[in-house]
């Protein structure tokens, strides 16, 4: 059987029978279950970044580890035996939580996230569909668990129509940011299952840039190669630090609401391999030192390119390097859908897009001297944080300790 799996963003569960995906789907959530659900998400995200960077060592990178994590979490709920074991290890799921605990936590997280979105200064939404071929007989309880997400589709007689309808749904739920997610030929008469996950984030900067200050400036792709970009400018108070461990200047740029921030890791201009050095040193411990430890509020003069990035990731080789063995082979066990081991995953695609401008984020100059010491300048003397060279950036939910998006900006597109 050929099955196309599109892993783009989050899948959320709704309800279940007492026993369907686990021995007790209705088990009450653990008091800390929602946070424990994400206890390994940071480590998973960093591993995913390293894996993607290996196949894109010189290009721009942008993806949503949060979405990929959720898509694989659904695969975990639908898996059994060795496939379940591999997915649990890859997702770094908390050892104190069994599948029933995680399933209950997931349902609670889905409800809480939906409710919070109704009264938030930013927009972060998740939408999902599970398309199954009409000829596949599903377990009754699964249709209840995925009541809103599950649709049976006629792939056999009109695969092209199915592909265009799926793409139209993705476009709608990403506010027209993601178009043609499934290229021509990815859906055919042999397709049995397509998992489509879409996420959308729109946040306004807490301190907005003034468009009148945006002007063309040089961006150094390397010390010997430059290009002109639209550079935004602002001077105000930001959390700032210098990490000797990461060999980078660090800036936190919060979005309105203060739940979500963008962290920029800017290497010194004097190092041609600055981004690569930062990535090599970006471990779980060093990342947590950035987002968990108190940064110092300073007056900072920020220069940031106005840019858009769109990146498509072929997940089949990526997930293999992360330890999801046999995930895309016939021996994989996803029997929770049908009660039989007759399904397997054929491929995985992840597509993400981000737009950075003066208002905020829709996801949709040389520094002559670099010092690793904490600067002792007087408060009225602003620090210069000029992103005129490649940098790493992370969009992070401080409330849930989850990495929503990650990117490496190496060159203007």
From TrEMBL:
<feature type="domain" description="Serpin">
    <location>
        <begin position="46"/>
        <end position="412"/>
    </location>
</feature>
<dbReference type="GO" id="GO:0005615">
    <property type="term" value="C:extracellular space"/>
</dbReference>
<protein>
    <recommendedName>
        <fullName>Serpin domain-containing protein</fullName>
    </recommendedName>
</protein>
<dbReference type="InterPro" id="IPR023796">
    <property type="entry name" value="Serpin_dom"/>
</dbReference>
<comment type="similarity">
    <text>Belongs to the serpin family.</text>
</comment>
<keyword id="KW-0646">Protease inhibitor</keyword>
<dbReference type="InterPro" id="IPR042178">
    <property type="entry name" value="Serpin_sf_1"/>
</dbReference>
<keyword id="KW-0722">Serine protease inhibitor</keyword>
<keyword id="KW-0732">Signal</keyword>
<dbReference type="InterPro" id="IPR023795">
    <property type="entry name" value="Serpin_CS"/>
</dbReference>
<dbReference type="InterPro" id="IPR000215">
    <property type="entry name" value="Serpin_fam"/>
</dbReference>
<dbReference type="InterPro" id="IPR042185">
    <property type="entry name" value="Serpin_sf_2"/>
</dbReference>
<feature type="signal peptide">
    <location>
        <begin position="1"/>
        <end position="18"/>
    </location>
</feature>
<dbReference type="Pfam" id="PF00079">
    <property type="entry name" value="Serpin"/>
</dbReference>
<dbReference type="GO" id="GO:0004867">
    <property type="term" value="F:serine-type endopeptidase inhibitor activity"/>
</dbReference>
<dbReference type="InterPro" id="IPR036186">
    <property type="entry name" value="Serpin_sf"/>
</dbReference>
């Amino acid at each position: 059987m050929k099955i196309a799996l599109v892993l783009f963003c989050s899948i959320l569960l709704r309800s279940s029978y007492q026993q369907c995906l686990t021995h007790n789907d209705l088990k009450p959530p653990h008091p800390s279950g929602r946070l424990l659900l994400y206890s390994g998400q940071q480590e998973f995200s960093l591993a995913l970044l390293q894996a993607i960077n290996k196949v894109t060592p010189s290009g721009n990178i942008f993806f949503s580890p949060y979405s990929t994590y959720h898509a694989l979490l659904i695969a975990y709920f639908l898996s059994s035996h060795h496939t379940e074991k591999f997915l649990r290890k890859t997702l770094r799921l908390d050892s104190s939580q069994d599948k029933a605990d995680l399933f209950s936590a997931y349902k609670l997280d889905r409800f809480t996230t939906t409710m919070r979105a109704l009264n938030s200064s930013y927009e972060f939404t998740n939408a999902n569909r599970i398309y199954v071929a009409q000829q596949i007989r599903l377990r009754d309880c699964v249709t209840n668990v995925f009541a809103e997400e599950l649709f049976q589709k006629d792939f056999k007689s009109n695969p092209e129509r199915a592909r265009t309808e799926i793409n139209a749904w993705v476009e709608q739920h990403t506010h027209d940011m993601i178009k043609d997610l499934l290229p021509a030929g990815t859906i055919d008469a042999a397709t049995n299952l397509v998992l489509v996950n879409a996420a959308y984030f729109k946040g306004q900067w807490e301190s907005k840039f003034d468009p009148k200050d945006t002007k063309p400036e040089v961006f150094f792709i390397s010390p010997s190669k430059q290009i002109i970009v639209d550079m935004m400018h602002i001077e105000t108070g930001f959390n700032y630090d210098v990490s000797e461990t990461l060999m980078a200047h660090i800036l936190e740029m919060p979005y309105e609401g203060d739940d979500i921030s963008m962290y920029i890791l800017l290497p010194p201009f004097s190092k041609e391999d600055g981004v690569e050095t930062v990535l090599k040193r970006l471990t779980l411990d060093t990342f947590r030192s950035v987002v968990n430890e108190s940064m110092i509020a300073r007056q900072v003069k920020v220069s940031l390119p106005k840019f858009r990035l769109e990146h498509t990731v072929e997940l089949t080789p990526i997930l293999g390097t992360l330890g999801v063995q046999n995930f895309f082979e016939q021996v994989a066990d996803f029997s929770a859908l049908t009660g039989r081991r007759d399904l397997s995953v054929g491929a995985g695609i992840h597509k993400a897009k981000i737009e950075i401008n003066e208002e905020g984020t829709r996801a949709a100059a040389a520094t002559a001297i670099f010092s690793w010491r904490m600067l002792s300048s007087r408060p009225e003397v602003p620090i210069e944080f000029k992103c005129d060279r490649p940098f790493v950036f992370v969009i992070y939910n401080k409330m849930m300790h989850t990495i929503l998006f990650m990117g490496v900006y190496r060159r203007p597109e």
